[in-house]
Amino acid sequence: MADDKDVLRDVWFGRIPTCFLLNQDEVTEREAEPYYLLLPRVSYLTLVTDKVKKHFHKVIRTDDAEEMWFEYEGTPLKWHYPIGVLFDLHASNTVLPWSITVHFKNFPERDLLHCPSHSVIEAHFMSSIKEADALKHKSQVVNDMQKKDHKQLWMGLQNDKFDQFWAMNRKLMEYPTEDGGFRFIPFRIYQTLSDRPFIQKQFRPVSPEGHVHTLGDLLKEVYPVALPTEGGPKRFQVVIHGIEPLLETPLQWLSEHLSHPDSFLHICVIPVPSD
Amino acid sequence: MASGALRGGGRAAETRWRRHIVGQLKLRDRRQHDKFQDLIRFYTRLLEKTSLTPARCPSSDSSLSALLHQNNQLKNTTGELAYQVVQLQQQIRVKDSVLDEQHARQQQEEPLLQGAFDSRLALQGRVETVRGDMGALKSDYDALLERQRGAETKLREEKLRGGNLLQDVIHLKQQEAANMNTRNERRCRAREAARSKVTVETSGSAPTSRSSSPKRESERRLFRSASATSPRILSSIRALFQRRRGQSVSSLQEDQLFAVGVCLSARLPVRALHVLEAHEQGINAVRFNSSSELLATGGTDRAVKLWDVRAGSLTHRATLDGSTEGVTCIEFDPKGPRVLAASYDKSALLWRLDDPVPKVTLTGHSRKVTAARFGLNLQVVTGSADRTIRLWDLQRACCVQVVEVPSYCSDLVCTGYCIISGHYDSKIRVWDTRAVRCIQELPAHGKVTSLDISPDHRHLLSCCRDDCLQLIDLRGRSYERVCFRADGFKCGSDSTKAVISPDGCFLAAGSADGAVYIWNVSTGNLETRLPDKHSTSISAVSWSPSGEYVVSVDLSRRAVLWRDF
Amino acid sequence: MSLCVLDEEKFHLCCQLLLQLSEQLGDGWSWEGGQEGYLRKTALRSVVIDSSSVWDYEGGGADTSCPSLSEQQEGEQEQAAVDASADTDSIKGDMEDEDEDDGVCVASAGSSQLLQYEYHILHSCSYSTPVLYFRACTQEGRSLSLEEVWSSVHPNYRLRLQNSPLNTITMQEHPLLGQPFFMLHPCRTEEFMRPVLQAAQDQHRPVNYVLSWLSVVGPVVGLDVPLKYSTLLHPAPPPRQHRARLTPSPCVCQHHCGAPLYGSCITNPTIRG
């Protein structure tokens, strides 16, 4: 349907206005100006912030600079999460643009992974895709693809080429019609209440009886805390790509259309804002 | 890609979550992406521009602060823009609501419009039917018009035929008149022969011209009736003389003031001396001057012609121009060589006899002037169809008095301080010039066509349209009237002129049948009739003051000079 | 094949068995985390870290201390890369292995350090296999970088692991703790486990998936899995049945992991005895 294509495009081209501010403690030769950037939701921080690094390298003592890392309100931002997920999880209901603080020193070894080069991001991305396909198709589809196809996926993401990416990705979204969906839905539920980074389980899109599972079914099974209690107020927002889909949305459809390029359906559960 | 083949939950539910997601994505993009896109792009460009000037940086802190300030301003602008965006969105909402309202109103108006269209169609249908009816009516009208035209042509033809018939009749009558004239002539000659044996006594006091005249008069008297009998002849001759005597001694005071003038011994005309076509068109007026040597005629051809009366013929002497329309009445000034004419062109003109150009033109009337007479003291009196009588001063050539009269004045005469006018309302009015008021009103038999006064101002002759001549005795209070009629005498027009003979014994008038009728005043009978010389109705006659000549003019340009031998 | 699928329940069971064995042996394994938990063990290890080696993913390492080895490594790496891209088993690899075996010289200029290792065994629901997470830090508390970890890996394994970079040691976020850990990618686990399990099934021998798996991958990262585990599990099997049972010959299954195999036998025909 044309709607679905629009959804894919909107998901791919989603952007978050961000303001990068240099950490005040960094020693600068002159005052550092903030850098504004529209970050793609589906990409990764270290993949799209080369300009930021270049900008701030102009003001700091480059010999001093170590690996750049980002932090929002004290929380170090994990580059291996998609940017959209980070935003939805930490700054969903705040004033735009999203203010991220840039650090060049004191890399938090305990919290963040290092990202020395783009190939690390590529490795992480591809491993996500493989893991997702392992859940969806028992890795058959991804193993059938050639190395150049893998490369095309990565290049599509790196260069923001929707058509190039989806030319390959559609293969990963196919399933035998008799099954009615994937084997298991690749998803991760993020939340800020506990230290556990995410929740990932095996969950079928269609019950053995043929009943189609919805987002609500998934939450009930895997993370019932997110759902409002009977007759109670809504305490949590279930956010995917910055929007709250209705709980009756079929999970299979969500996985096909609202997944990130790494084929995972990243779901953020955040408390409802108080004001 | 394989689109979800899930059909669980029914179509409506499926589209609900799908639409929800689509809408939510659009909303998110609007909030997060669209607002900031341009701003960030400009900011980055600006940043790049500033980064291209690194050399300046260390030296100018002020520029840096300026840049920072700019940055702050940009942030402010962002905020303002966001605010503006909100405002504009609000405006959009308002406009949308207005638009909806307009749509609703339009919806309401449409049925009314439809109704108007329908009524218009109905009216158009009616227009068509009315047009059809009108077409039918028009065709009827055209048919009727055609019929009317046919009838009119027929009428014209009939009128033509009628005219022709009339012409024939007139012609026949003229022939008859001519016949009668010849017969009268023969009779006259016969009587002449008979009279040569009769001797008549003459009175000595009578002027020499009278010596021959008794004969004439007796002859004339003989013409009184078609059958002349002898005893009556003698008695009438005697009567004649008696009367003449009376007349020759006029004792009225008024008369003494006037030069009674020329000798009064009128002789009955018998023979036409001269017949000529005097004018180019019909002749309306004729007058002898006081010496009987000049004749003036005037008519439709706008000229007044002067003729010398010599040796029994009329010789054209002069033509007086100046009138722009036909001449109705002519009078010679008894005191000098002047001639006055009244004209259709609403004026009266005065010429000197030797000057064809009029000396004085008296304008002021609003319709044709029917009569113009010399009054007292270089005054002229004019009567007009505009129901006024005006008095003019000749020296100043202006109107000194206007007298309103109740009716069309057809003719008038002046007697000293009186003006007598004849009117179409069958009345003769006498006016006092000094007081300018009507002294007397005298009835007439019909429309008064002309007036003539006897030289002794004692008798007034009026010619009426009902073929009657009326002689009124002006002396005394009783104003006796005597009527004169005759067989065959018909007043030809509204301006037929009748005259009294200079001696007051006879009346002469022209008839419509082309004969001159002469009555004897004393007997009251027709004295003689002079036919055959005129083919059309006679418009005017004039008796020369010498009594010798009578001139009659008719509408077919003919003037005839009559004499008694 | 459901044979190779290790669902969570079975994982728990295997872990419990392992724990029991560990307790008996005093190996130091513990269970953390409750229902959704993991096996944990810490160990001290003396490792030679080639701190001067500039060793990265892309190409060969400029190992100045062993130029011949490095050259060989480079050459073999390229060839191996080609092989890997072809994605087929090759006997050549065995030959190289042989060469390598002969030409091993682990002469490094690095110093020998005492490192604290922490090993976690988690269940991956995506691959339905166990996954090994570990981290190492010096006595001072400084965590090891990826390069250092790499350099601590036995060269035998290093080659094999290098061939397909995606299936090697990577730095990942611990799924339950959220902290950076090194991880051995589990995508090939099924491949090398299948023959093991198949053989076990054929011989109607019970097998502890986790233990077997650990015996393969553990040594790669310096995790010692004592033989006693298996002896306890399977007391004195007849020697004829298992040909290369106790020979620490490198595994030459499709995985090319080159790991010395303990315990379970292999029915891979390409094994060299």
UniProtKB/TrEMBL annotation, chain A:
Residues 185-269 form the Autophagy protein ATG5 UblB domain. It is found in: Cytoplasm; Preautophagosomal structure membrane. Keywords: Acetylation, Apoptosis, Autophagy, Cytoplasm, Immunity, Isopeptide bond, Membrane, Ubl conjugation. The keyword 4Fe-4S does not apply. GO terms for cellular component: phagophore assembly site membrane; protein-containing complex. It is a peripheral membrane protein. May play an important role in the apoptotic process, possibly within the modified cytoskeleton. Its expression is a relatively late event in the apoptotic process, occurring downstream of caspase activity. Plays a crucial role in IFN-gamma-induced autophagic cell death by interacting with FADD. This is Autophagy protein 5.
From TrEMBL, chain B:
CDD domains: WD40. Residues 176-227 are annotated as: Disordered. Keywords: Repeat, WD repeat. Residues 202-212 have a biased composition (Low complexity). WD repeats lie at residues 276-317, 320-354, 362-402, 419-441, 501-529, 531-565. SUPFAM superfamilies: WD40 repeat-like (SSF50978). Gene3D superfamilies: YVTN repeat-like/Quinoprotein amine dehydrogenase. Residues 183-195 have a biased composition (Basic and acidic residues). InterPro entries: ATG16, WD40/YVTN_repeat-like_dom_sf, WD40_PAC1, WD40_repeat_CS, WD40_repeat_dom_sf, WD40_rpt. It comes from the Eukaryota. The keyword Repeat applies. Signal peptide: none annotated. The keyword Repeat applies. This is Autophagy-related protein 16 domain-containing protein.
TrEMBL record, chain C:
GO terms for biological process: autophagy. Pfam families: Autophagy_act_C. The keyword Cell membrane does not apply. GO terms for molecular function: ubiquitin-like protein transferase activity. InterPro entries: Atg3/Atg10 (IPR007135). The keyword Coiled coil does not apply. Residues 59-103 are annotated as: Disordered. Keywords: Autophagy, Transferase, Ubl conjugation pathway. Belongs to the ATG10 family. This is Ubiquitin-like-conjugating enzyme ATG10.
